[in-house]
Amino acid sequence: MEYINAGGVWNGGGGGRPGPAGISLSAWWWDMSIHHRSLEENMSRQMTDAVDYRGFPADISKTGGWLPAALILGIEICERLTTMGIAVNLVTYLIGSMHLPSAESANIVTDFMGTSFMLCLLGGFLADSFFGRYLTIAIFTLLQLTGTGMLTVVSELPQLRPPPCTSAQNCRPASNVQRFMFFLSLYIISLGTGGLKSSVSGFGADQFDENDDREKTQMSYFFNRFFLFISTGTLFAVTVLVYVQDRVGRSLAYGICCAAMAAALALFLLGTKKYRYKKKSLESPLLCVLQVMVAALRKRKIAVSGDRFFYGDQQQGKKKRILPSNKLGFLNKAAMMEEGDIIQSRRNSWRLCAVSRVEEVKMMIRLLPVWGTTILFWTVYAQMITFSVEQAATMERAVGKSFQIPAGSFTVFFVGAIIITLAIYDRLVMPWWKKYRGFTGLTSLQKIGIGLLLSSIGMATAAAVETKRLAVARQVATPMKMPAPAATNTAGTWPENTLPISAFILVPQFILVGAAEAFVYTGQLDFFITRSPKGMKTMSTGIFLSTISLGFFLSSLLVSAVKTITDEEGKPWLGDSINNGRLDCFYGLLAVLSALNFVCYLFCAVKSSGKEEEVEEEDDDDKC
């Protein structure tokens, strides 16, 4: 009897007798055992819930990790560079080049930002239901690239903007055609932003295996570095790009954004073979939610009892029963079997849903309290890029004898606080927490709580600073009124006459709210991705980003309500000039609302802090 191996031929016989290759039979057997174990290890390194670009189970050693995640982060930093580079200085273009009124210009900027984040819901729906995250990112990056290219052309061609004003009386606003071309390019960018932001973070998280302790730790670092990249892109936008726009030309700055998006898209596509692709749902997650709701409403009169049979509560080939949880028990009726639910072996999904589907919908509903208590933070955030900049415009901003810091550039302190907070947390707090507490960093709920508390303190600080600024304004006795934008004021600069008080006293409020955003954003991102069902992660990211959109819209609503109420009482808080109003009272109101919101959040966080149970996998036709 002979054994054939690459190393030679061994004759059967004594265990220690060498063969022709000089290797004993026992050594050969040991070598084959090692080879067999190596094959088993290679097989075990294939992910069951992710595939490679060919559709085969993803090999952990060849796909995923930091390199593909870095390519995805490149898309995000260029998206932030483009969106913020356009948004932070857009109002000056609308006033100085398109000759639109100040209030209308401000509303256009707010609507642009709010719509961009609200469209994340659409992007998440398309990614979860049809395209998957990879294809969604590629499509919407191309859309944003197209919109930015169009905006470059619109800002360059004289035919697509009104002629320069020769005087205040001879200043023609943009025509309907010129407005149409401008808004078309702007909202194509908005659509691209929404689709990108709903999928980038989730696809980046897909590159790490939650079941591997080492990669799970890397995922925690990823969420922090993801936001660090966002902040880096924003910082570059509010400094370099704004300078290029004001000093060199709009079209050149927008062209830089366009080139950056093109480069990011090219690099993203080059990583196609290295990505891990999570298996796409067979049905729309939104459709799953609607089916459970409709089925539960149809059976609302049926009494829920422990001896009732629930559809899908026993999996094929398994003896373990999956019973619905007691939380949100009303929805359990959607899984209760009744006559007429199954006709000719076909189930009516609008009358009967599997237990696992009901539990997935419950998981999404349990995210809503935390979702609702984080909206107000983004209302606070909106003040940092509106009223806080207006405050800076009335104050001394000189550095040295000749350099005057633009009012809008004070957002650098805001962005800088975000970056420094993330760096300290990433390099100091997380390693310390891992070493002495045994786990990596703060939980997502703890991060959000810290951020909400800091934002409340930030608003209280802002109110105190504004009280001091208003006292100086009254002492001057000639309160200034912000001028209506003149035809020659194309850069959006403010008048040189300023209050004798340094604008640097505004820095603490920028730092506090900036640090708060670092905690809230990363905490929300982590919470919504890790607490949502596998098939709804991209949709849940869109829901999280909708809090930013609603925060912008709530800010507009709150400002309008406060202005209307206080104007009727004859003591306006928000007048035509902040020097004649009571912005400190408005900030104080936000501080109180933020404190109350923080208390509500603590209650919701305690309810959500329990470990989520895993939803058992069922047949494909029963999963969302």
UniProtKB/TrEMBL annotation:
<feature type="transmembrane region" description="Helical">
    <location>
        <begin position="134"/>
        <end position="154"/>
    </location>
</feature>
<feature type="transmembrane region" description="Helical">
    <location>
        <begin position="501"/>
        <end position="522"/>
    </location>
</feature>
<feature type="transmembrane region" description="Helical">
    <location>
        <begin position="81"/>
        <end position="100"/>
    </location>
</feature>
<feature type="transmembrane region" description="Helical">
    <location>
        <begin position="180"/>
        <end position="205"/>
    </location>
</feature>
<dbReference type="InterPro" id="IPR036259">
    <property type="entry name" value="MFS_trans_sf"/>
</dbReference>
<feature type="transmembrane region" description="Helical">
    <location>
        <begin position="367"/>
        <end position="385"/>
    </location>
</feature>
<dbReference type="GO" id="GO:0016020">
    <property type="term" value="C:membrane"/>
</dbReference>
<dbReference type="InterPro" id="IPR000109">
    <property type="entry name" value="POT_fam"/>
</dbReference>
<feature type="transmembrane region" description="Helical">
    <location>
        <begin position="445"/>
        <end position="465"/>
    </location>
</feature>
<feature type="transmembrane region" description="Helical">
    <location>
        <begin position="586"/>
        <end position="604"/>
    </location>
</feature>
<comment type="similarity">
    <text>Belongs to the major facilitator superfamily. Proton-dependent oligopeptide transporter (POT/PTR) (TC 2.A.17) family.</text>
</comment>
<protein>
    <submittedName>
        <fullName>Nitrate transporter 1.4</fullName>
    </submittedName>
</protein>
<keyword id="KW-1133">Transmembrane helix</keyword>
<dbReference type="InterPro" id="IPR018456">
    <property type="entry name" value="PTR2_symporter_CS"/>
</dbReference>
<feature type="transmembrane region" description="Helical">
    <location>
        <begin position="405"/>
        <end position="425"/>
    </location>
</feature>
<dbReference type="GO" id="GO:0022857">
    <property type="term" value="F:transmembrane transporter activity"/>
</dbReference>
<dbReference type="GO" id="GO:0006857">
    <property type="term" value="P:oligopeptide transport"/>
</dbReference>
<keyword id="KW-0812">Transmembrane</keyword>
<feature type="transmembrane region" description="Helical">
    <location>
        <begin position="543"/>
        <end position="566"/>
    </location>
</feature>
<feature type="transmembrane region" description="Helical">
    <location>
        <begin position="226"/>
        <end position="245"/>
    </location>
</feature>
<dbReference type="Pfam" id="PF00854">
    <property type="entry name" value="PTR2"/>
</dbReference>
<feature type="transmembrane region" description="Helical">
    <location>
        <begin position="251"/>
        <end position="270"/>
    </location>
</feature>
<feature type="transmembrane region" description="Helical">
    <location>
        <begin position="106"/>
        <end position="127"/>
    </location>
</feature>
<keyword id="KW-0472">Membrane</keyword>
